[in-house]
């Protein structure tokens, strides 16, 4: 009996011994350290230690505060210099458009002959935004038309197997340079003609940029119908744009008061208006003739 009881006790000891737990699939990193061999801390532990050390270091806090003050001061200086050269409020006025205005303005640029009233509307001596006045100039259509022209030029060159990034960049930069030169020439003409009006650089940039609507129509017509269709579209868009520029500058931009001055000044204003209008077909042809073959 003693033997059997001893055997049973010995056997129960072997059965009571628990099997080892299986190794975990992932290490527990919630405490910031992982159970890596050698007792080394996890990579994130050094970062946490360094951050805590920097936070507790007075010199580091002073350096961070000084850097933040410099960044804030630099931001204020940039905004101040930007407002000196570009009025954000005036720029917002030229982009205050909606879908209805854009559709009507595009129709006016292509078919201006049926339009009757060209005067810019005012409310309390402040011009109405473009979305409320069809005659008000805007910069949304010129900007989008310029971007569309660059993309359309790339497509036209690609169809003709002449596309390359260098040619596309040259096309965009050339168009931009010509617009800047045209605006500068108009500003000089307005200064020499001593025109008394609210005609600003944004106005001239808007009227100068409307030519890209005619550029797009000419290139699309040329790609669809060949050179004959291109020249027909070129003639129509050029004449429509010339009529639009003459009526807009004489009525909306220069204003009726500026036309009541002495005869020499009136002649200068008329020459300036006709010169700006006559320059548009030349620019449309220069920007499009190499895209249609």
TrEMBL record:
Signal peptide: none annotated. It is found in: Endoplasmic reticulum membrane; Golgi apparatus membrane. Keywords: Endoplasmic reticulum, Golgi apparatus, Membrane, Protein transport, Transmembrane, Transmembrane helix, Transport. The chain crosses the membrane at residues 139-161, 167-192, 204-224, 230-249, 270-288. The keyword Transcription regulation does not apply. Residues 1-33 are annotated as: Disordered. It is a multi-pass membrane protein. Pfam families: YIF1 (PF03878). The keyword Membrane applies. GO terms for biological process: endoplasmic reticulum to Golgi vesicle-mediated transport; protein transport. One of its GO terms (cellular component) is Golgi membrane. Has a role in transport between endoplasmic reticulum and Golgi. Belongs to the YIF1 family. This is Protein YIF1. The gene is YIF1A.
């Amino acid at each position: 009996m003693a033997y059997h009881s001893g055997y049973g006790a010995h056997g129960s000891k072997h059965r009571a011994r628990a099997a080892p737990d299986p190794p975990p699939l992932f290490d527990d990193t919630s405490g910031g350290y992982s159970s890596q061999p050698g007792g080394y801390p996890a990579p994130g532990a050094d970062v946490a230690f360094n951050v805590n050390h920097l936070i507790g270091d007075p010199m580091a806090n002073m350096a961070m505060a000084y850097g933040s003050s410099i960044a804030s001061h630099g931001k204020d200086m940039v905004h101040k210099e930007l407002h000196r050269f570009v009025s954000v409020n005036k720029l917002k006025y030229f982009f205050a458009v909606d879908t209805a205005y854009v559709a009507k303005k595009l129709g006016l640029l292509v078919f201006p002959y049926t339009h009757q009233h060209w005067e810019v509307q005012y409310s309390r001596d402040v011009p109405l935004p473009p979305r409320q006045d069809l005659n008000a100039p805007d910069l949304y259509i010129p900007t989008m038309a310029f971007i569309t022209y660059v993309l359309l030029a790339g497509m036209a060159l690609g169809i003709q197997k002449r596309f390359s990034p260098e040619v596309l960049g040259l096309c965009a930069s050339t168009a931009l340079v010509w617009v800047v030169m045209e605006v500068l020439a108009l500003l000089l003409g307005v200064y020499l003609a001593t025109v008394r009006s609210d005609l600003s650089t944004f106005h001239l940039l808007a009227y100068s940029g409307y030519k890209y609507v005619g550029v797009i129509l000419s290139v699309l017509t040329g790609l669809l119908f060949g050179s004959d269709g291109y020249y027909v579209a070129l003639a129509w868009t050029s004449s429509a744009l010339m009529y639009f520029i003459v009526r807009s500058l004489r009525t909306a931009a220069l204003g009726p008061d500026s036309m009541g001055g002495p005869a020499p000044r009136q002649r200068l204003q008329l020459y300036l208006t006709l010169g700006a209008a006559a320059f548009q077909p030349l620019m449309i042809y220069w920007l499009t003739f190499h895209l249609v073959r």
